[in-house]
Design goal:
Helix content: 40-55%
Pfam family, one: ECH_1
Protein name: Crotonase
InterPro entries: ClpP/crotonase-like_dom_sf, Enoyl-CoA_hyd/isom_CS, Enoyl-CoA_hydra/iso
Distance between the termini: 38 Å
Order of helices and strands: EEHEHHEEHEEHHEHHHHH
Family: Belongs to the enoyl-CoA hydratase/isomerase family.
CATH superfamily of the largest domain: 2-enoyl-CoA Hydratase, Chain A, domain 1
Shape: globular
GO molecular function: catalytic activity
Strand order of the largest sheet: 1-2-3-4-6
Length: 257
Amino acid sequence: MNEVVTKQENQAFHIIFNRPERLNAVNEDLYQQTLDALKFADENPNIRCVILSGNGRAFCAGADLKAHKSGDRTRDEREAYIMLGQCVCEQIQTMKTPVIAQVHGYAVGGGAEIATSADFLIISEDAQLGFPEVAIGTYVGGGVTVRLPSLIGLRNAASLLLLGNRITGAKCLEIGLATEAPPADQLVERTTALVERLVKNAPLPMARLKAAINFPKSPESLFRAEAEDVLAIMETKDWAEGVAAFAERRSPKFEGK
């Protein structure tokens, strides 16, 4: 069985974790297959949005502790496993294509790192998200030590990371971690509505905006970098199409060119 299932629906690409019997706990194969799927999506001009989700009762329950407990991994194998997780989160945060995490059930540990890495987090109001690493003597990854405080502030990040608190989707929305926190039976519907909005937007400026907001530049370079982005976008066919559509009072049709 594939650890990850993928499917494309029009310009949306679904990456679905597929270890339901283990609550989609991450292992090397799941990480590698997810990374491969993310790279494929980002290199495909016909894909405008990626949706991460999980089969079964959870989005992703984090590390497969049974595999860790076996003690069969060498140090090099442990390092390879850790770096795969880092590469997945880095890919999500740095790829041009916007990524939505559609979370139900649980997003814990590595699953929370993946969810936090996404550009949009739509989590059912009764789902649970947490970083339990300190309680089990391990450490977080996925850029969380920087990304989480930037998303929800230092105090909220400290509560989640240093206390290992687990919070609901509703609380995620309250503190600014989630984009939406609908009832569980509306989760797919709300994700679909967001996808429909994203795929209509011009992909080239979205890619530049994603890079700019995820990795802010120093004040000295910020204004020049923004100017260079604007100038680059003004040279695209999509820019001309957007201007023309506005003048003609019609919806633009962007091609990513």
